[in-house]
Amino acid sequence: MSERRAAPALAVEEIRASYGPVQVLFGAGLVVEKGEMVALMGPNGVGKSTLLRVIGGLMRPDSGTVRIGGIDATSWSPRKRVEAGLSQVVGQSAFGSLSVVDNLTMHGYANADKKWVRESVEAALMIFPRLNARRNQPAATLSGGERQMLALAKAIVNDPELLVIDEFSLGLAPVVVGGLMELVRRLNERGTSVLLVEQSVNVALSLVHRAYVMEKGEIIAEESAAVLAADPERIRTLMLGGHVAEAG
Ligand SMILES: Nc1ncnc2c1ncn2[C@@H]1O[C@H](COP(=O)(O)OP(=O)(O)OP(=O)(O)O)[C@@H](O)[C@H]1O
């Protein structure tokens, strides 16, 4: 029992993954402790989103292990992972012809308690007054920032233990990003662990406790956000894809 409680929210070990004949991940691994906020950073195309796909169950790795709350989830379906407390914010995907409320309600599909889903949809809309004002509007008519809010609100509807977010700063005005970050911070204070893939170093390091840097499908550095933030030269080298000898 106590072992289960002490287990990390997420532990990913030695993941190798390929698209057809092209290998993209070469033994990538990371850990998100319970209650922790962690960033996965790195230059374009190094495999960050691919690792998230493996974590979410959208892609089978060639080898390696994904543990959710200490339990081997590598062979689980995406749905089973959601039921185990994982919620993923991926891009701005939504059913365009459905309203904001219907999109949110649909996302609670894994939860049999429909009353709870209805209440948490309303709770999520309370967090985003902008979305609430557009609750009956088709998702296709939302602005980019509003769609990101919808993506985050959808993830919250499942009351996740672990929230995985892919690049929420992409293409959004700084003020919108600031609001989303504040929301993620509040969720984390309520106990949700967070894994954030983010290209904007400023956004990532001002939010998280710890960061991993990926390069060519491998983790090449792992550091507390405060230590990294104090060393802009090192960040520059890492984010330019410069190889740094030490890891961890
Ligand atoms: N569906 C796919 N089929 C084939 N190759 C893919 C596919 N998706 C991604 N790739 C390739 O895999 C590599 C890693 O892509 P991935 O999207 O994981 O990187 P990333 O680090 O998230 O990049 P970015 O920061 O630009 O989003 C890239 O070379 C990309 O072109």
UniProtKB/TrEMBL annotation:
It comes from the Bacteria. InterPro entries: AAA+_ATPase, ABC_transporter-like_ATP-bd, ABC_transporter-like_CS, BCAA_Transport_ATP-bd_LivF, P-loop_NTPase. PANTHER family: HIGH-AFFINITY BRANCHED-CHAIN AMINO ACID TRANSPORT ATP-BINDING PROTEIN LIVF (PTHR43820:SF4). It comes from Nocardioides faecalis. Pfam families: ABC_tran. GO terms for molecular function: ATP binding; ATP hydrolysis activity; branched-chain amino acid transmembrane transporter activity. GO terms for biological process: L-amino acid transport. This is ABC transporter ATP-binding protein. The keyword Translocase does not apply. The keyword Nuclease does not apply. SUPFAM superfamilies: P-loop containing nucleoside triphosphate hydrolases. Residues 10-241 form the ABC transporter domain. Belongs to the ABC transporter superfamily. Keywords: Amino-acid transport, ATP-binding, Nucleotide-binding, Transport.
